[in-house]
Amino acid sequence: MTGRGMNGRSSILLFRLVWLLIMPALALLVIPWMTIAAAETRLQGHIQQDQIWGEEKSPYRLTGDVTISEGANVTIPPGVVVRFDNGSRLVVKGSFTAGETFFDGMQDLHNREMVLFHPGSRGRLTHCVIENLELQIRTSDAAVTNNMISNPNGSGITVGKACFPTITGNDFHGNSYYAVYNEGKKVIRAPNNYWGAADGPSGAGPGSGDAINTPVDFMPFQKTDIGEHLVLAERHLDQTTLRPGSRFALTYVIDNLNSYEHAVILGASIFSNPEKHIHSPAHDRRILVKPGRHEFTRSFAIPDNAPEGTYDVLWGVMKADLTAYYVLKKDPGILHIGSEPAAGPAPVPPPVKAPGWVPLKSMPY
Predict the structure, then answer these.
(1) pLDDT digits (tens, 9 = 90+) for 41-52
(2) CA dihedral in degrees (107, 108, 111, 114; nearest 10)?
(3) Calpha distance 78→68 (Å, rounded)
(4) pLDDT digit string (tens) for 125-184?
(5) Would you say residue 100 has pLDDT above 50?
(6) In angstroms, rounded to a whole number, what is the distance separating the alpha carbons of residues 243 and 184?
(7) Is 72 within 8 Å of 50 (Cβ atoms)?
(8) Is the dihedral of CA 188, 194, 196, 202 positive or negative?
(9) Which residues are within 8 A (CB) of 8 and not within 5 positions of it... i.e. 6 or more apart?
(10) Which helix (H) or strand (E) holds 342?
């Protein structure tokens, strides 16, 4: 999940042209904000055949244990969100591969959500954000590389006895028990990780970062964050129907999982024709996102001559120097522009987190 530049100046200009958003506030009509609710793919039970969990069906929600059976392979391509209901587990007995995925344990207190790799299974996790759940690894055929791992309800990674997975290049932040805990007596190697502090891990380590226990070889270690980790945890629109010439507000709820501030631009655009984006560059907002969760609001002006119809909304969170994006997400068909105002307040769905995390190296929506 490392920063990557966009392909050429033309891509940057195209993205700026595409600055968007949706849902203007209607004069004389006060409407409560609504959370964009994406249809969820709910999962529970056994997976017997190979599957690809594509972004078109994201977010995926585990409502109970999901077991990948022996001989089955599940692959997750970039940009997908996987959520875990309270106590649910992803149990891997076959093969599981995920890249640039957001694994979300949903911030439940005292939760025990986890991804469990059984003996004999195979696992590959790279450039993912893994929050509020634990990785339990009971196989040596597992590689956990270049991820952000944060579990305030327990350990980030627990390794079973006589297992020697690859654990390298990760950022560990806010794991309340251990960042890496080895249940065995034989030493496992976990080099080139950042443990949340410049002086290294605590516990059996010399520093003040997240803890390790004695049979974990943490040397050498990184002294600063390895990746750049911003998550668009929620996004709010105050209307879904509006007139040409009106203005609306949009809200970004951003998790900064790094230990430093990020300077970003909140961009948005709307379009019914992919070749003709409507943008509001005067309202693009430059902000500093400090570590933690923060809420930001910007406005968007609909032109007087905007054609009537249904519009897609494109959300963008971009580096302030315009060299790369953190988030670029499209919500299709959620905005209507017409000559008549909305008949009443927009329906407010149950509050859910909208999937919005796209790592820097991914292609636009």
Answers:
(1) 999 999 999 999
(2) -50
(3) 20
(4) 999 999 999 999 999 999 999 999 999 989 999 999 999 999 999 999 999 999 999 999
(5) yes
(6) 65
(7) yes
(8) positive
(9) none
(10) none
Q: Is the pLDDT of residue 349 over 60?
A: no
Provide the 10 A C-beta neighbour count for residue 5. 15
CA dihedral 220, 221, 222, 227 (to 10 degrees): 110
* Residues in CB range of 98: below 8 A, 6 or more apart: 75, 76, 80, 82, 124, 125, 126, 128
The rounded distance, in Å, linking the Cα atoms of 160 and 242 is: 57
CA 160 → CA 130, 131, 165, 204, 217, distances in Å?
19, 21, 10, 18, 15
Cα separation, 281 vs 294, whole angstroms = 22
Reading the block at residue 262, the tokens are 């990020």
Q: Which two tokens stand for residue 255?
A: 């998790």
For residues 248 and 241, the answer to whether their CB atoms sit within 8 Å is no
SS3 category, 10: helix
Provide the b/e sequence for 294-328 (b: ≥16 CB within 10 Å): eebebbbbbeeebeeeebbbbbbbbbeebebbbbb
Beta bridge partners of 333: none
Q: What size, in residues, is the chain?
A: 365
Sign, Cα dihedral of 150, 79, 280, 239 = negative
Region 7-24: mean pLDDT is 39
- CA torsion 131→134→139→141, rounded to 10°? 0
**CA atoms of 181 and 174, how far apart (whole Å):** 15
User: 15 phi and psi, to 5 degrees?
Assistant: -65, -40
Strands 309-319 and 325-337: antiparallel
Place of tokens 């597992």: 142
